[in-house]
Task: inverse folding
């Protein structure tokens, strides 16, 4: 007891905390080191003789002994559990991110001209930047989406300006001998900071604040070697771009644009799908709502096109073409916010089915909150596109209550973009690994972020996806550079089938066995048939993502992923199969619902249905949220998760419970349909009600701590 008392006294000493900080122990590391040190002393059968003597002298008050004398022993122990403390100065230098402009000496050798084209959606800002791109001797276009890069690629070649296409999964050269053309259209992550150009275009620059991808815009803005950099985006990013360019000694010329067509916020809500008109687009923020709304539209004898984020690019373009075609009977579009960028759509009226959207917060929890002003403007701005058949755009909501809130959101000023994203480079992580050879890649990233120092204009991007993949493949023997590449793979970690495939890719790669076309076909069970229900459609989308993953890796490890041409061919065929499924989506929904127990809704999306709104924030932890169809039915077993059979049995059992308890048009049913309640929340409420009912019945207290004893007492009374 005396030892513990003195150890805690040692921990609370300000002088000791200061000494710890001087030796590289910040508050978090100091706390972790002390917990380990205290456990070592209290639980070890013996400690070193010198430490034993010091502890004895402190506890007995002998001589001039003081708890501060424990510090050398504490520091020695801390260095054993945190090896980086011995090379802290070197690690701090490596992770110093305060001067990103210095990372690009080739760009700093130029005096670049920066032109910011600022304006809302449909203002012609990107058009003017692209005109300069086409007139230049050489140029590069950097966009956020493959669809946008593909559009500029086609537009350039149609204008007789030879242009290559470069995305993570595809390199298309216009020259037959694969010589690089003077113009390139690429996704922003793929831009080269070494190749000189006359003109560069950076599109949607406000995404520099994106928690996951912002680093790519920072890299392009600071690193592109071009005489002219044309930046396109929201006015909210002007101040940040100007400040960033001030640190490079470059001035920014701002050109402001106004919307080319009028946009009116209507004074009335749609309220019923019976009021739909040709050119209407209903925007939903969950797949469940997409399926529900499209089914109701079809029930009214109307055709609708469907666009959402996980659809392949070819399918999105085909659905957009169907909706835009004046001779096609399809005049209604049901879409997610995926329409906000990359698709030219002839929309007369945007109708928000909901104004709340699920997002993931920093703790990995699902938040459901109102859309931001920036998001609302981006989506609403798609109505009345310049050059389309509709010269004026209109915006409203499905529900009357939401319209007032939507007007408030649209009238709020867009908050200025305050910081630009950064991400550790492979070279920086390799230098960390040299100093910490025994650390895992996930730990290296953690240590890098904890030690990194950033200027106020920057932030370190979210690395959760990177760490998830690093932990997933940690047991597979790979060299650090290969491991880093696998961990930067562009995949959705909520898709177990895709994650499992990456694991198999890495395992095969580690054995130095090429991943052939035949191997991939066996794994994905290709050829695949047209989907018969929504689950099968979702699985086909996941297989398409697997093909994307193969193609992405084939450009990094050509010898190990040798059949990119064959895979691209079957991916195009799969895209056509998915197009057939999406064209018949209402039939798939009916098939899914007929296979589901009466009174319950088929869960097809991780997102909650959001058909009604609330102007508040609800946080639902992932461990309590509904699982996606991929997780429930189409994926092989993922390490650390239940097998598919267990999940299927679990879902079946919970459905039966739900039918028994909530099958008769109850309030619970209505709340479930409106997305204000989930099945898990319902089960929890039911459990709490039963506990309360049991306690009341037996005349017991309702405190949780008394429940076990209460049950026993209840049995005796009964």
Result:
């Amino acid at each position: 007891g005396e030892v513990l008392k003195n150890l805690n006294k040692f921990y609370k000493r300000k002088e000791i905390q200061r000494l710890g900080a001087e030796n590289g122990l910040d508050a978090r590391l100091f706390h972790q080191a002390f917990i380990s040190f205290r456990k070592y002393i209290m639980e070890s059968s013996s400690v070193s003789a010198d430490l034993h003597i010091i502890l004895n002298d402190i506890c007995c008050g002998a001589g001039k002994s003081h708890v501060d004398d424990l510090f050398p022993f504490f520091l020695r122990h801390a260095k054993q559990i945190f090896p980086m403390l011995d090379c802290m100065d070197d690690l701090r230098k490596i992770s110093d991110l305060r001067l990103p402009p210095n990372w690009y000496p080739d760009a700093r050798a130029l005096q670049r001209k920066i032109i910011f084209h600022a304006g809302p959606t449909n203002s012609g800002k990107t058009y003017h930047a692209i005109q300069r791109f086409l007139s230049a001797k050489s140029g590069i276009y950097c966009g956020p989406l493959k669809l946008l890069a593909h559009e500029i690629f086609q537009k350039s070649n149609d204008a007789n300006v030879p242009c290559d296409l470069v995305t993570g999964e595809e390199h298309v050269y216009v020259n037959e001998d694969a010589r690089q053309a003077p113009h390139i259209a690429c996704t922003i992550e793929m831009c080269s900071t070494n190749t000189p150009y006359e003109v560069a275009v950076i599109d949607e620059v406000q995404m520099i604040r994106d928690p996951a991808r912002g680093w790519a815009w920072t890299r392009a803005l600071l690193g592109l070697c071009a005489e002219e950099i044309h930046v396109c985006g929201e006015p909210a990013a002007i101040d940040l771009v100007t400040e960033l360019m001030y640190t490079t000694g470059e001035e920014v010329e701002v050109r402001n644009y106004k919307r080319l067509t009028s946009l009116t916020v209507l004074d009335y809500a749609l309220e019923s799908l019976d009021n739909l008109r040709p050119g209407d687009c209903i925007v939903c923020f969950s797949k469940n709502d997409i399926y529900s709304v499209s089914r109701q539209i079809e029930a009214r004898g109307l055709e609708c096109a469907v666009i959402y984020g996980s659809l392949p690019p070819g399918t999105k373009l085909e659905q957009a073409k169907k909706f835009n075609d004046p001779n096609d009977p399809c005049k209604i579009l049901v879409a997610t916010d995926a329409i906000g960028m990359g698709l030219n759509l002839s929309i007369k009226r945007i109708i928000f089915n909901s104004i709340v959207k699920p997002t993931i917060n920093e703790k990995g929890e699902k938040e459901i909150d109102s859309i931001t002003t920036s998001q609302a403007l981006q989506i609403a701005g798609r109505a009345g596109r310049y050059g389309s058949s509709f010269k004026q755009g209109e915006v409203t909501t499905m529900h009357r209550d939401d319209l007032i809130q939507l007007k408030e959101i649209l009238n709020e000023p867009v908050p200025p973009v305050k910081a630009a994203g950064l991400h550790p480079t492979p070279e920086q992580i390799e230098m960390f690994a040299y100093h910490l050879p025994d650390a895992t890649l996930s730990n290296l990233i953690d240590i890098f972020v904890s030690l990194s120092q950033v200027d106020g204009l920057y932030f370190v991007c979210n690395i959760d996806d990177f760490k998830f993949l690093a932990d997933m493949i940690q047991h597979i023997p790979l060299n650090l550079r290969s491991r880093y590449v696998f961990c930067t793979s562009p995949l959705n970690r909520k898709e177990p089938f895709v994650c499992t495939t990456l694991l198999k890719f890495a395992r095969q790669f580690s054995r130095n066995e090429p991943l052939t076309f035949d191997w991939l076909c066996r794994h994905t069970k290709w050829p695949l048939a047209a989907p018969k229900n929504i689950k099968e459609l979702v699985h086909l989308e996941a297989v398409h993502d697997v093909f994307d993953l193969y193609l992405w890796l084939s450009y990094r490890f050509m010898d190990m992923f040798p059949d990119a041409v064959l895979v691209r061919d079957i991916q195009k065929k799969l895209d056509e199969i998915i197009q057939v499924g999406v064209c018949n989506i209402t039939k798939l929904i009916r098939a899914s619902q007929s296979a589901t127990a009466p009174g319950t809704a088929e869960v097809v999306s991780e997102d909650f249905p959001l058909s009604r709104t609330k102007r508040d924030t609800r946080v639902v932890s992932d461990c309590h949220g509904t699982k996606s169809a991929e997780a429930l039915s189409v994926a092989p077993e993922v390490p650390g998760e239940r097998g598919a059979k267990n999940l299927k049995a679990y879902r079946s059992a919970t459905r039966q419970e739900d039918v028994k308890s909530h099958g008769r048009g109850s309030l619970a049913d209505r709340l479930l349909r409106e997305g204000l309640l989930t099945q898990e929340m319902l089960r929890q409420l039911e459990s709490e009600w039963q506990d309360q009912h049991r306690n009341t019945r037996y005349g017991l207290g309702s405190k949780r701590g008394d429940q076990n004893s209460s049950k026993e007492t209840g049995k005796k009374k009964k």
User: Anything to note?
Assistant: Residues 112-256 form a domain with the Rossmann fold fold (CATH 3.40.50.300).
